[in-house]
Amino acid sequence: MKNIRVVAAALGTLLLLGGYFPSGTYAPVATAEPELSDLKGIDEFRTLFNDDVGKVRLVLLLSPT
Amino acid sequence: MQNELLPKYAKANLRAYAIWFNMFPGDDRSKWPPNLLTDARVIHRWDEPKAVGLWYAPHTASIRSELAPGSQWRDGAILWDAYLLYGTDAKWSDTPTAGLIHWGRTIVAGRETLKDDFTKMFAAGATATPRRE
User: Fold this and answer.
1) Long-range contacts of B94-98 (CB under 8 A, 24+ apart)
2) Taking CB atoms and an 8 Å cutoff, what residues of chain B touch A61?
3) Digitized pLDDT (tens) for each residue of chain A, 65 residues in all
4) What is the pTM (predicted TM-score) of this model?
5) Which ipTM did the prediction report?
6) Rounded distance between C-alpha atoms, residue A44 and residue A58, angstroms
7) Residues whose CB is less than 8 angstroms from the CB of residue B85 and which lie 6 or more positions away in sequence, other chains included
8) Residues of chain A positioned with their CB less than 8 A from the CB of B113
9) 3-state DSSP call for residue A59?
């Protein structure tokens, strides 16, 4: 994906929209030092996904460049 | 952009999974951009065998009706540069259809639909999961 920064900007905007407060202010949100660990197969992903039932879930399939 | 926007993020009830894998000849795990998605709600995984993209690709025919307007997908072997948005009650079974709201490819091409869905779900007073139109 050669336009990864465009994608990131779009996603950042969307997450921003998701956090918009009706008062017109924005609530702080936690950031973290991202960690990239190896996916241990589709079963791990299935478990992650199902452990988060109750949340809206966004799956992003990305390439690093 | 991330550094500019992240301080303004709130805690929408959201989890994002960023699944990274090689698709271009120059791609490599070492090229992973750690500063692009630093929101704590984002889980990053490196998928060397492209297992997730390979899993989704053959299922795309069954979720074609949820494809965001403006998106393009021609039944490739690996789904990538794509997003899939699921509601709160979605549970992964043998297919990706349950609870899927929309998916888009490319992510940029589907961003307006994703933005609309976010607004419907997270705007003040929003309680319903958006439905396809």
Assistant:
1) B95/B59, B95/B62, B96/B56, B96/B59, B96/B62, B96/B63, B97/B59, B97/B62, B97/B63
2) 19, 21, 52-53, 56, 79-84
3) 455 666 666 665 555 444 433 444 455 556 678 899 999 999 999 999 999 999 999 999 999 98
4) 0.83
5) 0.89
6) 16
7) A56, A57, A58, A59, B100, B101, B102, B103, B114, B117
8) none
9) strand
Q: In 3D, which of B18, B124, B74 has the Cα closest to residue A36?
A: B18
Q: How many residues does chain B have?
A: 133
Domain ranges of chain B: 2-122
Q: Kindly list the averaged pLDDT for each block of 10 residues, start to end, along chain B of length 133.
A: 38 89 96 90 96 95 94 92 95 82 94 88 63 50
Q: What residues are paired with B67 via a beta bridge?
A: B103
Nearest Cα residue in chain B from A35: B44
